[in-house]
Protein: L-rhamnose mutarotase
Organism: Ulvibacterium marinum
Amino acid sequence: MVIRKAFKMKVYPDKIEEYAKRHNPIWPELEEKLKEHGVENYSIFLDAETNSLFGYAEVESEEKWNALAETAVCKKWWAHMTDLMETNNDNSPVSKDLESLFYMP
């Protein structure tokens, strides 16, 4: 069974272009690690009025999704992105999970 994850983050207003640039393309080793951890159909959208980022990913399991955060390449990516967005003390993005209210398969 696929788990659908949605979450929001915040990018600094003057860093949107750089944020998009760093994701297109993402590092091949990060993409590989995402796939190894069961992540599929990962998208990030921007609400330019609020500088909010909306992330959506389909994941194999919560355990694999959470374990991704412990990988060296993920931590390196977070450090690479800290100058562009709101982050926690460990460099992870400040992120808020969103609740699913409707789904049409």
In short: The domain at 3-98 is CATH 3.30.70.100 (Alpha-Beta Plaits). The radius of gyration is 14 Å.
